[in-house]
Amino acid sequence: GYVAVPFEVYQPVDGELIVTVYPGLEKTADAFLQQFSADPFSADAIAYLKEQLTPFVKEYDLAPSRDADVHFLEYRLRDRRHLCTARLLPDTELADGHTDMTEWTNATTHALEMDDADPDAACAVHRIGNTIAAYAAENDFPEETEVIEIHVECAPAYRRMGYATSCTVRLSQFLLDRGYSVKYVCRHTNAASARVAEKAGFSLTGRKYSFVCSRNDG
Questions:
Q1: 84 Rama sector, left if φ>0, alpha if ψ -120 to 50, beta otherwise
Q2: Helix (H) or strand (E) holding 186
Q3: Which helix or strand (DSSP H or E) is residue 195 part of?
Q4: What is the model's pLDDT at position 98?
Q5: Burial level of 191, CB count in 10 A (0-12/13-18/19+)?
Q6: How far is CA 194 from CA 88, 161, 175, in A?
Q7: Alpha helices, H only, 114-162
Q8: How far is the C-alpha of 156 from the C-alpha of 160, rounded, in Å?
Q9: Contact partners, residue 103, CB within 8 Å, separation at least 6
Q10: What's the CA gap between 45 and 102, in Å, rounded?
Q11: Cα 117 to Cα 136: distance, rounded to the nearest angstrom
């Protein structure tokens, strides 16, 4: 399906609020800033944007996604000085597209897929026997050439054991050694995921609200 982001609000921790909009939404942006610049990620601010933007996107046969109700925390790790290697567990391993995972069972709720055609692709996995308890992997939609965003998954039965943090540290170590900085993004409501980023050594760099909408052309 088709995905669009006609309105986005970004607040860096050390900078001014940035609002990016599609043509035709400039007045909506001005009104939003007048009312909510002091607290642009409040429930009232997001409810206002949904109310104002939904009729606009409906004209293009688009509908807001479920992420239109939340904003996200963005974390960044730029060098190994801040990486908390003390959180790295001995059994956390690095895998790539050539790793034989046929005997592994993924206990997380998300599939782990590796591209064997990409020699630089990698993920970090923590297994209990042949069961994947947690993993960290690269997102497949890079926004910047020198930054790689990662995502982390942990099976419910293995949470609060340090496995997700260990995977985050191991994959970040691999990426930093290859000259990338690493981005970690989570919903503002996901306190557990935010703690993983912070324990691994990431620093909060900003908050973002994206009015994501989509159309299923299939």
A1: beta
A2: strand 181-187
A3: helix 191-200
A4: 86
A5: exposed
A6: 17, 15, 20
A7: none
A8: 9
A9: 130
A10: 47
A11: 19
Q: And the tokens for 115? A: 């591209």
The pLDDT assigned to 68 comes to 87
Structure tokens at 51: 């109310």
Please report the pLDDT score of residue 168 as a whole number.
98
On whether the CB atoms of residues 192 and 149 are closer than 8 A, the answer is no
Q: How far apart are CA 193 and CA 168, in angstroms?
A: 11
Closest CA to 168 of 179, 189, 182, 178: 182
Give the integer Cα–Cα distance in Å for 113 and 125: 12
The C-alpha atoms of residue 139 and residue 149 are separated, in whole angstroms, by 6
Query: What number of residues does the chain have?
Result: 218
> Which residues of the chain carry a pLDDT beneath 70?
1, 117, 119, 141-144, 216-218
Q: For residue range 82-125, list pLDDT tens digits in order.
A: 999 999 999 999 998 889 899 999 999 999 887 776 767 899 99
User: Any idea what DSSP says for residue 144?
Assistant: B
Q: What is the pLDDT of residue 67?
A: 84
Task: Please report where in the chains the tokens 């919903």 appear, as a residue.
Answer: 187
Backbone angles phi, psi at 33, to 5 degrees: -65, -35
Q: Which residue has tokens 């930093």?
A: 176
CA distance 185 to 99: 27
CA nearest neighbour of 131 among 157, 150, 113: 157
Q: What's the pLDDT score for residue 144?
A: 64
Q: Which tokens is 78 given?
A: 């730029």
The reported pLDDT for the residue numbered 133 is 98
